[in-house]
Amino acid sequence: MEPGERPDPEVRDSATEPEAHDTSSAFGPAAGEGNAEPVVGDPMASRELPTLSDGELAPPLAPLRSQSRLGDTGANILHDLESRAQNARTQVREQRDKLRARNDAINARSGRNLAFAVLFGVVLGALLLSSLIFIKELFIPFAIAMVVFATIELASAMRGAGRDVPRIPLVAAAVAIIPAAYFLEVVGQWIALLVGVFVVTVWRLVEASVSKDRPPRKAVWADFLAAALILIYVSYLGSFTVLLTAQEDGQWWVLGFLIIVVAVDVGAYVFGLNFGKHKLAPKISPGKTWEGFAGAALTSVVVGILVSLFLLDQQWWFGLIMGPLLLITATAGDLTESMIKRDLKIKDMSSWLPGHGGFFDRIDSILPSGAMAFALYFWSADSTLW
């Protein structure tokens, strides 16, 4: 074209139009190639491409990250969390089963629900401590309740074995002897005991006289002896603990001898459970062993020294005497109760105390030990009873 010559419009358009280049890429056809075939496999292949405001086709957008891959990752995380939770539940269940099996084995060997027995013992001990430490007069109703329930249990067991033991006068005597021992001391204790024996005897004789089927004289005497045993063993021996509480600082002596008796029981149980092989008295109490008795002896000495030094304000050697003496009385009381139950052909006196049997089963070692502690109290003070 010559200078100054105006170009033809058609020529001008073709001259100014840039050379077409293949600008297609992996993302789709280049801009302006509206008639180009879409790339095979392009997600936009099955739909119409959007257009810009000037009518040209917009370049296709890059595809987003695969939603299925994100979904798989989330599912894997959830599956991993569920697997860990399931493993944790399995481990907890296995540990629970092991503990339950171990607890069942211990309960089978001890013959009672040990965990519940310990819990109930702690509650009962807390009530006892409260009555002794704060207001020792509160120990009176506590002792009355223990003696009365034990009396009812033993009397009911004897009636079940064929002995016609009158429970009403026995309970009345038990209620009377406890406050008599606390407020009137030894004199009141003996008066209440003798009156109780007299009332029980007269009661039984009147019952036998007015009965349509009069029992033989031998049976009446057997009933009287059974009632006297209950009066002496439960009510009279139980009143010594109350009599000791009434003395100056007597509540600490009661607390001290109870601690030693409990320690004897625990020591015998632990050593007997783990090392027991040789029976102590198989015909009376098959569960007791010499190994358990040795453990109880060791425990009684150690706890006796500690109680003497820190609770009773005594010399350390006093514990060497008090501990073994209470070991003897506690063991004797336990064996006596076992002998009574074996003679009556029963396992527990009652089921009033869950995990413990009955009240008499719990105070069998305490009854004679209270009398021994009362004697040790006056011996240590170099006093007389009168």
Please, could you describe this protein's structure?
- By secondary structure, the chain is mostly helical.
- The protein has helices at residues 9-16, 67-110, 114-133, 139-160, 167-210, 217-245, 250-275, 290-310, 316-344, 359-363, 366-381, and strands at residues 279-281, 285-289.
- The protein is 68% helix and 2% strand.
- It is globular.
Give the key terms.
single chain, 386 residues, mainly alpha, globular, disordered N terminus
Q: Which regions have little confidence, pLDDT < 50, spanning 5+ residues?
A: 1-6, 8-47, 64-68
The largest beta-sheet arranges its strands as 1-2
The strand count comes to 2
Distance between the termini: 154 Å
Summarize the structure.
The protein has helices at 9-16, 67-110, 114-133, 139-160, 167-210, 217-245, 250-275, 290-310, 316-344, 359-363, 366-381; strands at residues 279-281, 285-289. With 386 residues, the chain is mainly α.
How are the elements arranged and paired?
Blueprint: H1 9-16, H2 67-110, H3 114-133, H4 139-160, H5 167-210, H6 217-245, H7 250-275, E1 279-281, E2 285-289, H8 290-310, H9 316-344, H10 359-363, H11 366-381
Antiparallel strand pairs: 1-2
